[in-house]
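fyi for ur records
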Amino acid sequence: MHPTRAPRVKICCIASLEEAWLAIRHGASALGLVSAMPSGPGPIPEELIAQIAARVPPPVATFLLTSRQDAASIMEQQRRTRVNTIQICDHLPPADFDELRRSLPGIRLVQVIHVQGPESLREATSVARHVDAILLDSGRPKAEVKELGGTGRVHDWTISRQIREAVEVPIFLAGGLKAENVHEAIEQVSPFALDVCTGVRTDGKLDEAKLAAFFREVRAATESL
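which gave:
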């Protein structure tokens, strides 16, 4: 899918309603709400995810980040939290995508691909037909303690570009993005959307100055295209 000129921005690891409104005021198109993870920043109780999701106005998307690997428990999470998008951070069998489609009509599915090498291109092209979008991140799902996001690491953007050119669904780019490198990321990958967590935080809290700088650089990069 050819990207739009101005990438959308998803602010991830939202920890409170106050953070949600701060992100929205600065222009976030989507919010990431992290459920239980084996490692990494940002997990909050499902009760809080539900409270935030209930207050977020359309058209802002609410993403539930899940580490679950079966359709049944993911469906239960969605029904408890009432988000409109599910971000699958680990591997899911193809039949489970079909089950999610049947059981959760209208709920968007986004698959995370942790870009670690050329094999990520094959993984992305294989899963693309099952989902509404692909999110490229820098985790290590095969590590002894799985890393499924929020690492603050940049991956190989040349592979991300290849994936973006190879698939028909929108691409979200994550992994170590911040105001200082987002211009280059947009130029190199030209993604549909950007996803940022640690790059707009200080001591784990959403930092309004970093948030403003990030959106400022996104606008500057877009104007220069």
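The domain at 8-224 is CATH 3.20.20.70 (TIM Barrel). thats all i got for now
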